TrEMBL record:
Keywords associated with the record: Carboxypeptidase, Disulfide bond, Glycoprotein, Hydrolase, Metal-binding, Metalloprotease, Protease, Signal, Zinc
Species name: Halocaridina rubra
GO CC terms, sorted: plasma membrane
Documented EC number(s): 3.4.-.-
Name of the protein in question: Angiotensin-converting enzyme
Organism superkingdom: Eukaryota
Alphabetized GO MF terms: carboxypeptidase activity; metal ion binding; metallopeptidase activity; peptidyl-dipeptidase activity
GO biological process: proteolysis
């Protein structure tokens, strides 16, 4: 630790109230870092510091950045939550502006961290070095402000289109306000009419995917552009950074190879069961399973137990009646779930969760009703 490093004064002085030993003259700073930056920039001369001083400076700059990023992040997440639970144009604009502020904050802190590029390797603590690494990928905030606004707008338009899409009922049914959570998802689980299911699957895609299509190409273009500003070839490379594993793709490919034999068997089993119900014109003997008959709009789970259950005569436990008898409410479901997690020694939900969460859809306004959990960036409200 005794060895001294030559460090550009400009970098160290950008941290607050740091006492530096500058060629024997000690000077103490207590003004804001911005004042110091302007004051010190003209010097741009190297000074000699030891590792401890460097570590201290690194920690201070991280603390400062942490706090301002945290506040901006909380505001961006909070306004975005407020918008999604009350979809109005005003709320959308407020959320957008908070996100823009957060982005510009990230840009500023990225600039400060860039100054440390050459010094990172001298930082002795892995933890501090890792935080610098994390702050040195700017993400989409690297876009020029016009592009960034377009990017955020396109995202919020796509999300709103996707989340508020409705379809008409099957075969001339007049109702055209069927929504994914309230009507279509239950239909996917319960209907065994392949044409009705196909109608739901297709029209919902027409009203989401097709309408999003043009926005999506803009999104891809801007996301790749942002990645290039960060020094990556494309957005995939950038998105893989948070996993902190250089061979992440290979690891996933290996995991898939391990699961594949079991998956193939399950797939063949499900296909033969579905063929018995829907016939060979809908479910072919070889090849993929049709997505619309799997009980889930995204075929992400195969929610057709009556068809797939291997031993259908085995009694099943259905707790619905008992739950009705015990007067379960949506909130009670969350309380029971919390008891379960507490019994595994996990942490209690914060009081803000109980106070602010939306457990039931209000019927006085449109919202995004898809279940989601949020990180409000304040280290207690998730
Ligand atoms: C910055 O915040 C993160 C997340 O809350 C925390 O793990 C880290 O220790 C903080 N860094 C500093 C230097 O305080
Ligand atoms: C929804 O947001 C609007 C502002 O756009 C506000 O006037 C209204 O009170 C909000 N509704 C609720 C129930 O919070």
């Amino acid at each position: 630790m005794g060895k001294s490093l030559a460090v550009n004064q400009h970098i160290l002085s950008s941290t607050l109230s740091l006492r530096l030993n500058r060629r024997g003259n000690s000077f103490s700073q207590s003004r804001s870092s911005r004042d110091l930056m302007t004051e010190v920039t003209p010097y741009k001369r190297d000074i000699s510091v030891n590792h401890t001083t460097l570590a201290l400076a690194a920690e201070r700059i991280l603390n400062e950045e942490n706090e301002s990023l945290r506040q901006a992040c909380t505001r961006a997440v909070y306004t975005s939550w407020y918008y999604q639970t009350n979809l109005t144009e005003i709320n959308r604009r407020i959320a957008l502006s908070a996100q823009m502020q957060y982005s510009s904050m990230k840009q500023q802190s990225w600039h400060k961290v860039q100054l440390w590029q050459g010094l990172k390797n001298y930082l002795l603590s892995d933890e501090i070095r890792r935080q610098f690494e994390a702050l040195s990928v700017l993400g989409t905030s690297a876009l020029p402000v016009g592009d960034l606004t377009d990017y955020k707008n396109v995202l919020s338009i796509m999300s709103e289109t996707y989340n508020t899409a409705t379809i008409c009922g099957y075969q001339g049914a007049r109702k055209c306000d069927l929504s994914i959570d309230r009507d279509i998802s239950p239909l996917m689980v319960n209907s065994r009419d392949a044409s009705e299911l196909s109608h739901a699957w297709k029209t919902w895609r027409d009203n989401t995917g097709k309408k999003i299509r043009n926005h999506f190409s803009i999104f891809v273009e801007l996301a790749n552009k942002a990645a290039r500003y960060n020094g990556f070839r494309n957005v995939v490379e950038m998105d893989l950074v948070p996993y902190e594993r250089p061979d992440f793709r290979q690891e996933i490919a290996n995991a898939w190879e391990q699961i594949k034999p079991l998956y193939l068997q399950l797939h063949a089993y499900a296909r033969s069961k579905l063929r018995k119900v829907y016939g060979s014109s809908i479910v072919r003997e070889r090849g993929p399973l049709p997505a619309h008959i799997l009980g889930n709009m995204w075929a992400q789970k195969w929610d057709v137990n009556d068809i797939l259950m291997p031993y259908p005569w085995k009694p099943q436990i259905d707790v619905t009646n008992e739950m009705v008898k015990q007067r379960f409410t949506p909130k009670k479901l969350f309380e029971v779930a919390e008891d379960f997690f507490l019994s595994m020694n996990m942490t209690r939900m914060p009081h803000t969760f109980w106070r602010h969460s939306m457990f039931e859809a209000p019927n006085d306004r449109p919202i995004i009703c898809h279940a989601s959990s949020w990180d409000f960036c304040n280290s207690y409200d998730y």
